[in-house]
From TrEMBL:
<keyword id="KW-0012">Acyltransferase</keyword>
<dbReference type="InterPro" id="IPR001594">
    <property type="entry name" value="Palmitoyltrfase_DHHC"/>
</dbReference>
<dbReference type="GO" id="GO:0019706">
    <property type="term" value="F:protein-cysteine S-palmitoyltransferase activity"/>
</dbReference>
<keyword id="KW-0812">Transmembrane</keyword>
<dbReference type="Pfam" id="PF01529">
    <property type="entry name" value="DHHC"/>
</dbReference>
<keyword id="KW-0472">Membrane</keyword>
<protein>
    <recommendedName>
        <fullName>Palmitoyltransferase</fullName>
        <ecNumber>2.3.1.225</ecNumber>
    </recommendedName>
</protein>
<dbReference type="InterPro" id="IPR039859">
    <property type="entry name" value="PFA4/ZDH16/20/ERF2-like"/>
</dbReference>
<keyword id="KW-1133">Transmembrane helix</keyword>
<comment type="similarity">
    <text>Belongs to the DHHC palmitoyltransferase family.</text>
</comment>
<dbReference type="GO" id="GO:0016020">
    <property type="term" value="C:membrane"/>
</dbReference>
<feature type="transmembrane region" description="Helical">
    <location>
        <begin position="235"/>
        <end position="258"/>
    </location>
</feature>
<keyword id="KW-0808">Transferase</keyword>
<feature type="transmembrane region" description="Helical">
    <location>
        <begin position="114"/>
        <end position="133"/>
    </location>
</feature>
<feature type="domain" description="Palmitoyltransferase DHHC">
    <location>
        <begin position="193"/>
        <end position="317"/>
    </location>
</feature>
<feature type="transmembrane region" description="Helical">
    <location>
        <begin position="139"/>
        <end position="157"/>
    </location>
</feature>
<feature type="transmembrane region" description="Helical">
    <location>
        <begin position="278"/>
        <end position="297"/>
    </location>
</feature>
Length: 367
């Protein structure tokens, strides 16, 4: 049995509307029937625009889901020269959104990502050259805190790097091929992204910045210049967690240092003048307070999403999944951090490996 062609469906009902609303996004749906018979029928039966409709006709029903960004571009911009949808799998040509293996070529996202690294460097400078290296405290105190601070910084920056340069779970381009469609039973409705020309897995969404469909996409974060999805959600949670911890730790060291300086009438803090020290500490305090609050909220939000088995996009659209009733919190954590519970969960250098079952869907981590 071979798959040979797609038959467009023409409805006899003039009131049939090919534009519908899915969740909170307005999308345009094109319907086709992929017939697997050797005898091609000349006409197809009408199919309702409902997303749950099935058909008794032989073949697979293909529905092209047009992302919101592409929908409005087609509606208000008739010039197709700006559209660039490459078919290469490596994503290294000029028209692709990425350079190297995975790095989104978004100027705003790249600037936010590098700014995050700069803020880490500034905090390191103040902690080392303003608080610890000057002989304001004992040598043992300085060595221990230098070790702890740099350990936390390495974990936080490494988590940020892995989140930024890891494939978040992009669906392969142009995988809606006849060979792949033959795997589905007759009457199955298959959703295909009109931009990626890919079969959309359950709970996947198209990102207008990454220009790819992302498996179990939570959101696109400008601070990591990447989507947070199935493959890199672990790294993103570790980044927010370690950043929150190191920010609180910096505030503790800052408080100890300013107390020591004031109690000694600045005699113990002679490496920098009092005005310069105050300026350094004020900027560090503002950075640490802002980062600690923001990352604490993000960490809590991510863990709550795992607990409820709901992504950020699904929460925004009001979509709910029923899998939480039959799975524990630990089982949901295993889907994100890996099936082996242990210290590897807290290690940004280890991938969340092993095969996990989620919602009758086999989930693999293919970074």
């Amino acid at each position: 049995m071979s798959l040979k062609k797609f038959i467009p469906i023409h409805s006899n009902d003039d009131n049939t509307n090919d534009e519908m609303e899915v969740g909170s996004s307005s999308v345009k749906v094109h319907r086709y029937i992929c017939d697997t018979n050797t005898d091609w029928s000349t006409q197809s039966t009408n199919i309702s625009s409902s997303t749950t409709t099935t058909t008794d006709e032989p073949g697979v029903t293909i529905k092209d889901v047009v992302p919101r960004s592409m929908y409005y571009h087609e509606q208000y911009n008739n010039d197709d020269d700006d559209d660039c949808l490459c078919s290469c799998a490596c994503c290294r040509c000029e028209c692709c959104p990425t350079v190297s293996d995975w790095c989104i070529r978004d100027p705003y996202g790249l600037s936010c990502g590098f700014t995050t690294w700069f803020l880490f460097i500034y905090a390191q400078f103040v902690i080392i050259f303003v608080i610890l290296i000057p002989k304001s405290h004992s040598i043992i105190f300085n060595i221990i805190n230098l070790f702890i601070f740099h350990l936390l910084e390495i974990l936080a920056v490494s988590s940020h790097y892995r989140t930024m340069f890891s494939n978040p779970g992009a669906v392969p381009l142009n995988d809606a091929t006849p060979e792949n469609l033959l795997k589905y039973e007759n009457g199955t409705i298959v959703y295909r992204c009109a931009m990626c020309k890919s079969i959309k897995p359950p709970r996947s969404h198209h990102c207008s910045v990454c220009k790819r469909c992302i498996k179990r996409m939570d959101h696109h974060c400008v601070f990591v210049n990447n989507c947070v999805g199935q493959n890199n959600q672990k790294y993103f949670i570790l980044f927010t967690f370690y950043t929150c911890v190191i920010s609180i730790y910096a505030l503790i060291l800052l408080g100890i240092h300013i107390t020591t300086c004031i109690n000694s009438d600045w005699n113990a803090c002679t490496s920098w003048s009092p005005p310069a020290t105050i300026i350094f500490l004020i900027f560090l305090a503002f950075e640490a307070i802002s980062f600690s609050i923001f990352t604490a909220i993000m960490t809590g939000t991510q863990l709550y999403s795992i607990y409820t088995d709901t992504t950020g996009i699904e929460s925004f659209k009001g979509e709910k999944t029923g899998s939480r009733r039959s799975s524990s919190f630990i089982s949901s954590l295993k889907i994100v951090f890996g099936s082996q519970v242990g210290l590897a969960w807290f290690n940004p250098f280890s991938k969340p490996v092993n095969l996990i079952t989620q919602n009758d869907e086999r989930v693999t981590f293919d970074v």
